Amino acid sequence: MDTLYAMKTKQDMNISDIAAQIRTPEECFLVHCTESIEHAFLADGSNFYRRSWLRKQTQKQSVLKTDAQLVDELNSHMHEAFPDVPRVQQHIIGKLKRGMTEIYLHPQAILVPEDQLRFARPDHLFLQRVTPTGRTFDALMFHAGTLTTILAIPKSQLKVLQSWYNQPLFMGGADPLPLTFIKQQVRKGVDNSKIVEALMGDQSDSDSEWLPSESDEDLTEDEDDPTEDPTEDPTDDSTDDPTDEDEDEDEEEDK
User: Fold this and answer.
1) Which end of the chain is more exposed for a tag (fewer CB within 10 A), N or C?
2) What spatial distance separates the first Cα and last Cα of the chain, rounded to whole Å?
3) For every residue of the chain, which 3-state class applies, written as one string?
4) Which residue(s) pair with 117 in the sheet?
C-alpha cells in the first residue's frame, strides 16, 4: 500500500508525502475500515484521505485472503504509516449532506468522511423526535451559534451519543424544538445546563418524556436502518441532490 486517495483534490498521493505534511498528529484522526465499511480514512486539517480494502486477487496467489484478513491488513498498514495519529472508534449513522453515512465521534471532534465534513465538539447539543414509536431522531448541534442538524439517527444509537457527549442532554418529543428560544439563549452565552433546565420546565407530559428501555436498545440491524424519510432541517432552505461524484472518485481511486 503506497498511496491514499485524496478526496479534496481527487488524486492518489504517496503515503510518505502525506506523512511529511502532518505537523501535529494529535489534530489528525484515523478511521478503521470493517467488512461492512469499505474505506479506511485519514483526516487532517484540510483533507480526507481514503483507501479501500476491496481489491482484486489474482489466481496466481497461492492462498486467497479472506475479507477479514484484507480488512486487518489495511488497518495495520494505516497504523504503521501514521503511528502517532489517534484512532476514532465510536460512530453513529445519520444524514448531514448527501445521505445516510457513518459519523465518527472523537472527544474533541466529529468526522463525516464521506461528506468531507469535520466539526469541533459542539458547544450545545439537543435531540428532537425522540418518541416511543419513532425509529429515528435528530441531533441539533451548535458551534458558536451556528446550527447543524444530523437527521435520522437510529434510536438504538441514542446511548452512544449520550455517552460521547457526557453532559445534560435534552430530548424533545414529536413537536419541533423551540429553535428561536434556543438560538437566543446560545447567543447570550447561557450555559448548556441552564438551557436544558428551561426546556425541561416547558416540557409537557407527552412522549417527549420517553426514555429508552432495554427492549428499545435490542433492535436488530434490520430495524436500525431507517425506512422513513427524515424530517428536513427547518433552518435549511436548500435541498442537496445526490450526485454521481462518489462513483467517479471510486474509478480514479487506486485499489
Assistant:
1) C
2) 9
3) CCEEEECCCCEEEEHHHHHHHCCCHHHCEEECCCCCCCEEEEECCCCEEEEECCCCCCCCCCCCCCHHHHHHHHHHHHHHHCCCCCEECEEEEEECCCCEEEEEEECCEEEEHHHCEEEECCCEEEEECCCCCCCEEEEEEEECCEEEEEEEEEHHHHHHHHHHHCCCCEECCCCCCCHHHHHHHHHCCCCHHHHHHHHHHHCCCCHHHCCCCHHHHCCCHHHHCCCCCCCCCCCCCCCCCCCCHHHHHHHHCCC
4) 112
CA–CA separation, 150 vs 128, rounded Å?
10
pTM of the model as a whole: 0.77
Which residue is listed with cell 428536513? 232
Which residue in this structure is represented by grid cell 412522549? 207
Residues making up the chain, counted from first to last: 255
Q: Is 208 in contact with 201 (CB distance < 8 Å)? A: no
pLDDT digits (tens, 9 = 90+) for 56-97: 666 566 578 899 999 999 999 999 999 999 999 999 999 998
